[in-house]
């Protein structure tokens, strides 16, 4: 833990907010179109309808905001999942939450021709909930009951199953392939502000609940017997936490597709900074998760310019070494 005092933690949080805002401003000006800081300022103070102002206000602004919200959601969901399961690899991507939500949306697009963002959101919630229940149920089999290793294997199996079913659907229905292929790679490119406004009430409520629940999560991480001895209703706490994960994961998939590794990398980095107190972990994950995804999105614009790499590819490229390190360390200890 680097920040040992509360003063340092507050200062670190403020620095994180400044970094996030700086990266979001950078997201407004960096890209294939030649823009600068003055154009970005003028786009909001003296809009003239030029191509540059349109790109900044209608394309890059929603993109930066969506990146910040999705990154925050995935990081918080990963932190809560790691606390509930005591599994260092727990995250919406590893446990198949993203894959399940994505599969349900692909069904809606390819079979039922759904094209409403509101519908996508609720379909993603359903897919995330079904997957979470299936992973918990499968991971509970056997005499040892629920263990971190069994949860990881169950999550990996469900992620592989839903990914395979998704690919099978797209092979059968090639007409739907163009609509969802770039989205399935995980991308904030081309997303509109309406998409963010649709999920924002759900995401905002879930983030507020996660902050309010943070102290109870601290108690729960001490062990279920200890939590019950202190009078905590652990079943209710776990249920609310699971609903928060479903809402955050489902909303992220509905807006940007299945983006991996943020839910693993950021919570571990945050614990390195502030320790294991979830009253600090949750807000730090929100800020640094958003900053990480916005930064990855900026990088994705330059890799193969003038084309763009889906941001999900960039997060995988950055996050894979961390995933390998965490996996080796976590299972080595177990």
UniProtKB/TrEMBL annotation:
Annotated membrane topology is:
Multi-pass membrane protein
Tell me the Gene3D superfamilies matching this sequence: ABC transporter involved in vitamin B12 uptake, BtuC
Membrane spanning segments where?
Answer: 12-33, 64-81, 93-113, 119-139, 196-215, 236-269, 281-304, 311-328
The family database entries (SUPFAM superfamilies) matched by this protein are listed as: ABC transporter involved in vitamin B12 uptake, BtuC (SSF81345)
Give the InterPro entries listed for this entry. Answer: ABC_BtuC-like, ABC_transptr_permease_BtuC
The reply on keyword Cell membrane is: yes
Nucleotide-binding: present as a keyword of the record? no
Q: What is its main location?
A: membrane
Name where it's found.
Answer: Cell membrane
- List keywords of the entry alphabetically: Cell membrane, Membrane, Transmembrane, Transmembrane helix, Transport
What family is this protein classified in? Belongs to the binding-protein-dependent transport system permease family. FecCD subfamily.
- The name on file for this protein is Iron ABC transporter permease
